[in-house]
Amino acid sequence: QVQLVESGGGLVQPGGSLRLSCAASGSIFSINAMSWYRQAPGKQRELVAAITSGGSTNYTDSVKGRFTISRDNAKNTVYLQMNSLKPEDTAVYYCNANAVVVIAVTLIRGDYWGQGTQVTVSS
What is the pLDDT of residue 52? Predict the structure, then answer.
């Protein structure tokens, strides 16, 4: 129904930057919010940043001023620019989309997840 493909993770030194991308494809009628979550080893998955189709954003306190979420509605793609990275940002980052899909002649809203991309911040 909806496939989310993430890219851009990797290993970076403290203070460095990375840009994550997540492209959505499939039987998409519309996408409402798109979000980035992360899960560190032994911890629960947490919301990092979210953006509505109109461009309103919100961030978890620990990344405010360092991370920026944006989206290209024409490409069904969301980005996460991560600057001033810290070791505590190390986690698997997951893309989420709240989307309406077309199944036969029916519109169905659901939440969809990407496979995750590893971000490691270490010297």
Answer: 96
